[in-house]
Amino acid sequence: MTTLAAEELTQRSKPAPRQGGGLSDRGVRTMSIYASTLIPDRIKGPDGKMVDVDKSDPAKFLIPMDTARRVIQAATRSAYADVCDLPELGKANFKTMLAAEQGKQNWTQEQIVMIETLHLFATSFFAGKAAVPIERDSAPSDWQDKVVEEGDGPAQKLVLPPAPECPPERKAQVEAAINAYVASAGAQ
Question: Which residues, 6+ apart, have CB-to-CB distance to 70 below 8 Å?
């Protein structure tokens, strides 16, 4: 059951469509671009005090495509935890993903900020809580009731994707998938 739940939860963010569906490289780049616009001006430093984030060189925040994809996969699980009212599992999922990423590379502070911000944006997007700008009439048909007009320019529509549903069997799958992810990361 855990394998099936994990497959279902990551289906939307599998590597490249040529492998059977999921989020394409272009989708990963697009989500990363949107997330980069949300990088905060100030963050907590190692000593707990707030420090300014230097955003003058966006290249400092770049992370590899494979890393961005892993972050988005984790965000998909977090979004399901949010929709299924499992906040503690969502937090555990995020902390596990962040610890795993910190253990894989010597990330700069800016790259860690990008990883955290990408996770936050993707979680909000997949949970149906983050609007993105779109060209007029380009939203998928099942998103049309989520399109909001804003201004008169060519890309002045914002769209919220529909939030996934969480019937009881989905909630059980989400719990199993996140618990398996957290346990597998602890075993490594």
Answer: 97, 100, 101
Same domain assignment for residues 60 and 145: no
- pTM confidence score: 0.76
Residues 104, 155, single domain; the answer is no
User: How far is Cα of residue 2 from the mean position of the Cα atoms in its chain?
Assistant: 21
Q: What is the pLDDT along the chain (188 residues), one digit of tens a residue?
A: 333 333 434 444 333 344 445 678 888 998 898 899 888 888 887 788 888 888 888 889 999 999 999 999 999 999 999 999 999 999 999 999 999 999 887 898 899 999 999 999 999 988 988 776 655 455 555 544 555 555 555 545 566 677 788 999 999 999 999 999 999 987 55
3-state secondary structure of 116: helix
Q: Is residue 167 part of a domain?
A: no
Residues 16 and 107 reside in one and the same domain: yes
Structural domain harbouring 147: 129-162
Give yes or no: residues 103 and 133 share one domain: no
